[in-house]
Design brief:
Layout: E1 2-11, E2 14-25, E3 30-34, H1 39-42, H2 44-54, E4 63-69, H3 81-91, H4 97-101, E5 103-105, E6 108-109, E7 115-116, H5 121-130, E8 134-138, H6 142-145, E9 153-156, H7 159-166, H8 196-208, E10 212-216, H9 222-227, H10 238-251, E11 265-266, H11 274-278, E12 279-280, E13 285-286, H12 288-291, E14 296-299, H13 307-312, H14 314-319, E15 321-326, E16 329-334, E17 338-343, H15 363-369, H16 374-377, E18 382-386, H17 403-420, H18 435-441, H19 446-459, H20 463-480, H21 487-497
Parallel strand pairs: 3-4, 5-8, 8-9, 10-17, 10-18, 11-14, 14-17
Antiparallel strand pairs: 1-2, 2-4, 6-7, 12-13, 15-16
Helix pairs in contact: 2-3, 8-17, 8-20, 17-20, 19-21, 20-21
Length: 504
């Protein structure tokens, strides 16, 4: 007799169905797991044996064979403990076979039978919904999985609870989705003294999810501005929150067992490796660019990052996804993020300060910022210089708009884009528009077209730069509530495009 249960094997954010088959046969007592398991899966037999012993369930003196089908798909992780135990209990006749076959389960077993939380509960729930099965998982992982309303999610604290649930002694109630309540931020854009042009660029970037590059002396406020960007971003939509949380679930960084509507803000150190930024490792885990999906990736001291890491960002910035190719896996992760990059004008950082003039000006600045290649810089929509703030200006009272006021304008612009791209697949904000969609929404008037022609001839604007200027101009028009792009919108977009073009 062969009993069956179901679980999943992860390949990126995709969860592939795995059938767990358990057969009891006469012969020398043995417990074998086949089907390309890794070390963690092979060790499941010892954890299961101890967990069943804690429940006073003795294994029969037979040969127990567990097959994980399909057998050519690599099985990795400790979440196979629970489905193997469920299949074994069904084979022993302790729980009904039809119950085990109608359930997708995952979870790690402790030696006393309690269930430990695992990663990937959210993608597993999506897979269970597609197969019209319920999901059984540890109680600590159930709040995130319960966000998938198309399937019933049951959270159990121990293997004994699972047995009592399936035998009808003590049925478990379906889990409810959990939501992480974000902490109230004390940061405010008004804390930044001066820097009105930088604040304007930050507002445009937030409204259209454009990439921003800031160059300025140390202490001019670049990091301070970037830290306040989350305070003006609108919360994620349910679809965006689900997409981002699936990546975080696979990476095991979901907090408090729930889903947050706050946009991710990732700020890796410049010593981070290629695998840390782009993704990779033995299990092809997501990197910082994927963890920042639908959020912000802040790269401070950008020229200090290794050149291979920087050049690898070209394709993800353009396509919004990254493929991690390994000998045993090809995994694709989404990575539609907003890149906020900051850099000093030179290695010493005082190239623009006349009181601390460097003897190597301008060569020091060209050598330092020259680490950023032209093709990479061509992909950055907004480029601004952040001048140093005079000491006497720090004593002036706070001025300018608050984060709340800017956030309202950004949200209004995002709402316009949501309505505009409602019928376009894969396009949510102006930064995603391309081809025919870009022509429909960003055709300039006659004066604007003439200005663009002059700029293209004078500064050698590339085709990519031309399209990015149009996207930024469309966002500027959205912030004003204008129907058509006019010359002032294009002029402002071009001014941000050419701010540091001569120095880089």
């Amino acid at each position: 007799m062969v009993a069956r249960a179901y679980t999943v094997a992860f390949e990126g954010v995709e969860a592939h169905q795995v059938e767990v088959q358990c057969a009891l046969a006469p012969g020398l007592p043995a417990f074998a797991i086949v089907g390309l398991p890794d070390k963690a899966v092979s060790e499941a037999r010892d954890r299961i044996r101890a967990a069943l012993a804690s429940m006073a369930i003795a294994l029969p003196s037979k040969r127990i064979t567990i097959n994980l089908s399909p057998a050519d798909l690599p099985k990795e992780g400790s979440h196979f403990d629970l489905p193997i135990a469920v299949a074994l209990l069904a084979a022993l006749g302790i729980i009904p076979e039809d119950a085990s076959e109608s359930t997708v389960s995952l979870g790690e077993l402790s030696l006393d039978g309690s269930l430990v939380g695992v990663t990937g509960a959210l993608p597993a729930a999506m897979s269970a919904a597609e197969d019209d099965r319920m999901l059984l998982c540890p109680a600590v992982s159930s709040p995130e999985a319960a966000w998938v309303a198309a399937t019933q999610v049951i959270g159990a604290a121990s293997l004994a609870d699972v047995v009592r649930h399936y035998t009808g002694q003590s049925p478990l109630a379906p889990s409810k989705p959990g939501e992480v309540q974000g902490e109230t931020s004390t940061l405010d854009l008004r804390d930044v003294k001066g820097q009105e042009r930088a604040k304007r660029a930050l507002e445009i970037a937030a409204a259209g999810r454009h990439h921003l590059f800031m160059v300025g002396s140390p202490g001019s406020g670049k990091s301070m501005l970037a830290a306040r960007l989350p305070t003006i971003l609108p919360p994620m939509s349910p679809t965006e929150a689900l997409e981002t949380s699936m990546i975080h679930s696979v990476a095991g960084i979901l907090e408090q067992g729930g889903i947050s509507r706050a946009r991710p803000f990732r700020e890796p150190h410049h010593s981070a490796s290629m695998a840390a930024i782009v993704g990779g490792g033995r299990r092809a885990q997501p990197g910082e660019i994927s963890l920042a999906h639908n959020g912000v990736l802040f790269m401070d001291e950008m020229p200090e990052f290794s050149r291979p890491v920087l050049e690898t960002l070209r394709q993800p910035i353009e396509t919004g996804q990254v493929m991690i190719a390994r000998a045993n896996a090809h995994v694709t992760y989404p990575c539609k993020f907003m890149l906020i990059a900051a850099a000093n004008p030179c290695r010493c950082g005082h190239m623009y300060d006349p009181s601390q003039a460097c003897a190597r000006v301008p060569d020091c600045g060209q050598d330092y910022l020259g680490r950023l290649s032209g093709p990479l810089m061509d992909r950055l929509d907004l480029r601004i210089e952040v001048p140093p703030v005079a000491f006497r200006d720090l004593d002036l009272p706070n001025d300018g708009d608050t984060s709340e006021q800017v956030a309202q304008r950004v949200a209004a612009a995002r709402d316009l884009q949501t309505d505009r791209f409602e019928t376009h697949d894969g396009i949510r904000v102006n930064a995603d528009a391309h081809g025919q969609a870009l022509e429909e929404i960003a055709t300039p008037d006659a004066e604007g077209r003439a200005l663009l022609s002059q700029v293209a001839e004078r500064f050698g604007l590339t085709a990519r730069g031309y399209h990015r200027v149009l996207r930024v101009a469309r966002t500027i028009a959205d912030l004003e509530g204008a129907e058509q792009i006019r010359r002032p919108h294009l002029a402002e977009a071009i001014s941000f495009r050419l701010s540091t073009s001569q120095e880089v």
